[in-house]
Amino acid sequence: MSSTSKLLLVLILVSHSIYSSAQKKVAIIGGGMAGVSSAYYISQFDSTAKIILFEKEAKLGGNAQTVLVKNKAGELVNVDAGPQYFVEGPWDDYILFLEKTLGKNPYKSETLDASLLIQREKEQKPVLVSPLGMKLRGEKLVKLLKLKRFNKEAYDMYKHPEAWKGINIETWVNGLKFDESYKNEIIYPFLAASLGTTVLEIKTTSAVNIVKLFAFRKPKASNKFKVMTDGMGTLIQQVGEKISSNQVTIKCSSPVVKVMQSKDKWLVTYLNNGSEETELVDFVLFATHADQAAKIMRLEPNLNEIKEILKHLTYFEARIALHTDSNFVNNQKPAFLNIITNNSNQLVSSTMNLSMISERLDGIYKSWASQKAIEQLKNSGKLLHVTSFWHPLITTDFIAQLAILHQQVNQFPSIYLSGGWSEGLETQNSAVISGQHALEKYKVFIANGK
Ligand SMILES: Cc1cc2nc3c(=O)[nH]c(=O)nc-3n(C[C@H](O)[C@H](O)[C@H](O)COP(=O)(O)OP(=O)(O)OC[C@H]3O[C@@H](n4cnc5c(N)ncnc54)[C@H](O)[C@@H]3O)c2cc1C
User: Phi, psi (5° rounding) for residue 49?
Assistant: First the structure.
């Protein structure tokens, strides 16, 4: 070998070893919107990073589950069993993320006139029918005007959230100048049904976050709620295909079972066809729900304090059924959201009449349903699909715990806990924002040369 070739070889080896020591391995646990967006943002920032995304299920999406079912005409159509709607303005990070990853005009969407009906079980007449478009359709105009006033109050809170920090729904609603019957019959059932939880639970949740969740604001482009024609779940899978590369490896059907600290790295153990395999990585991102993250950390004593905080974050079960039974909706006065209450104003069911969004969804209903209702649907042959989701209950205590959690996690330069919930608001948009925050943490990690 000539001396020039030897020098070249030495230079290549030296540059390779510098490159290798600088190159970081990142494990992302969870393939919902938070995990997928984190993978994208980190890969864009650091083209040398090697990213492995682990998802326990067979496909990406997490809560965003798009299901193929038959409509009245017998055609197969996409329906989102989990997250479904978005609004331009409050969901702009989500929209921009899809544009960045999937290209121009990345999706087809459909628009709906959000319209609300609240009815007592076994009674013919609804308590309230909200306007559809500009037409007033309310049984009782006074109640309808009050609903508009309520919307204005919620919008005011949306604009001035700092004044309402730490206040729960019950305290906020108590302060509103409405009579008790209106609060109990209309406001509480409406807020609870929209989230898929109970009246009792909604009262303790953070008022500011609930108001943000419903996007009580004047959106930039339009006032309309929208749904994705192909489904929010389908879009996450498309993003996954786009970002898969030599740099980003996506491992589905690969649940992570533990993460242990190993000097200044992390040993990630996951299952591959039932056998345990490991990856030694520099940076770990937990993009699962908090309770799942706590399970994965359970054997690592250095993370005990984080686990303690995670235990305080509570979840509730939302059973969502797609079905063809129209008994839950009032077809005489069609509305998008049909809320049925009992005589004590507690929720009995909350059903979305999907044909109000789009004709292609005609004959398909989406209900937040009790186990009993699901059994009935099953027995009548009208059940299309059912999923149990675990949704964080964003109480004021939850928000307070999050602040402590972020402080604790900051003591570890090479881990981050992302996810819609970790922003104190659980939407596809907050999951994307969480992906951006994961990148911020990663940047600090790199800047400190850790
Ligand atoms: C019924 C329902 C309706 C909703 N409606 C809307 C809506 O209309 N609009 C909206 O914007 N948002 C809505 N949301 C909220 C939205 O679904 C969430 O904000 C969003 O899905 C959060 O994304 P994420 O990535 O944080 O979590 P997830 O989507 O929960 O993803 C977490 C992922 O981690 C994976 N995982 C867990 N444990 C492990 C492990 N050990 N190893 C590997 N992977 C693991 C899970 O399988 C999952 O894929 C709704 C939620 C529900 C439940």
Answer: -65, 140
- Round to whole Å and give the CA distance between 242 and 68: 22
- Pairing state of beta strands 315-323 and 283-286? unpaired
Do residues 75 and 360 make contact, with C-beta atoms less than 8 angstroms apart? yes
Residue where the block lists tokens 């303005």 = 89
Q: Please tell me the distance from the alpha carbon of residue 307 to that of residue 409, in angstroms, as a whole number.
A: 10
pLDDT higher than threshold 60 for residue 345: yes
C-alpha 124 to ligand 1 mean position (Å): 37
Homologous superfamily, domain 25-108+228-311+396-450:
FAD/NAD(P)-binding domain (3.50.50.60)
Pick from 427, 429, 430, 433 the residue to mutate for probing ligand 1's pocket: most ligand atoms within 8 Å of its CB.
427
CATH number of 115-223+315-392: 3.90.660
By alpha-carbon position, which residue is closest to atom 1 of ligand 1? 82
CA-CA distance, 425 to 392, in Å (whole number)? 9
Question: Do residues 319 and 388 touch, judged by C-beta distance below 8 A?
Answer: yes
| Paired residues of 266 in beta bridges | 261, 281
Token pair in block for residue 302: 């250095």
**Largest Cα span, the chain:** 95
Q: Where exactly does CATH 3.90.660 map onto the chain?
A: 115-223+315-392
User: What interface predicted TM-score (ipTM) does this complex get?
Assistant: 0.99
E strands in 273-354:
275-281, 283-286, 315-323, 337-341, 347-353
In a 13 Å sphere around the CA of 258, the CA atoms on its Cβ side amount to 10
Chain region(s) in the chain for CATH 3.50.50.60: 25-108+228-311+396-450
On the question of pLDDT at 6 being above 70, the answer is no
Helix 232-243 crosses helix 33-45 at what angle (to 10 degrees)? Answer: 30
Q: Residues 61-89: what's their mean pLDDT? A: 95
The ligand 1 site (C-beta within 6 Å) comprises: 29-35, 54-57, 62-64, 82-86, 196, 255-256, 287-289, 292, 296, 318, 320, 389, 391, 419-420, 426-429, 431
Pick from 143, 118, 120: which is nearest to 333 by CA? 118
Which of the residue ranges 51-65, 156-170, 414-428 would you say has the lowest mean pLDDT?
Answer: 156-170
Tell me if 109 sits within 8 A of 229, measured CB to CB: yes
